[in-house]
Design goal:
mainly alpha; Ferritin; 5 helices; disordered C terminus; binds MU-OXO-diiron
């Protein structure tokens, strides 16, 4: 049976992953209607990735004899100033998720729930990759500034990354 405090914290993380999916969906919609189809494809793809993160937690909680719980979600932000603004917020959000996973890991150590600690290792590695990917994209966007041709190129690269998940580099 799973430790009760850990189960509660895992359920809070399920909510955060579900919110992440909706936040990226909202960003994808903004990109799609504002002339960035590649960024939209990338963020739609990332929406699915967040749902996968959520589902991994759901199955883990249930498999350990707990019960996954779904909460009400706040409306995700839907207005952005620019593509740069979108990806700044993606990075900020990923940093927030990293902090949340780390504190969850801390709780498993406190509670001596080493099985869940071990399970969380996958997320710890995933967060390093996610933050690094978003930083790379953000650096590219800041480099081109307001240059329209450069922005068009970045949008194309993002489209390629959505289709070649895990293999393409920015
Ligand atoms: Fe589920 Fe992008 O972290």
């Amino acid at each position: 049976m799973i430790n009760e405090k850990v189960e509660t914290a895992l359920n809070e993380q399920i909510k955060k992953e579900e919110h992440s999916a909706r936040l990226y969906l909202s960003m994808a919609i903004w990109c799609e209607v504002n002339g960035y189809p590649g960024a939209a494809a990338f963020l739609y793809d990332h929406t699915n990735e967040e749902t996968m993160h959520q589902m991994k937690f759901v199955h883990y909680v249930n498999d350990r004899g707990g019960k996954a719980v779904l909460f009400n979600l706040e409306q995700p932000e839907g207005k952005f100033d620019s593509l740069m603004d979108v990806f700044e917020k993606v990075l900020q959000h990923e940093e927030y998720i990293t902090a949340s996973i780390n504190s969850l890991y801390g709780l498993t150590v406190e509670e001596k729930d080493y099985t869940t600690g071990n399970f969380l290792q996958w997320y710890i590695t995933e967060q390093i990759e996610e933050e690094s990917l978003m930083r790379t994209i953000l650096d590219k966007i800041s480099l081109v500034g307001q240059d329209k041709a450069g922005m068009f190129h970045i949008d194309k690269e993002l489209e390629g990354m959505a289709k070649n998940k895990g293999t393409a580099t920015v």
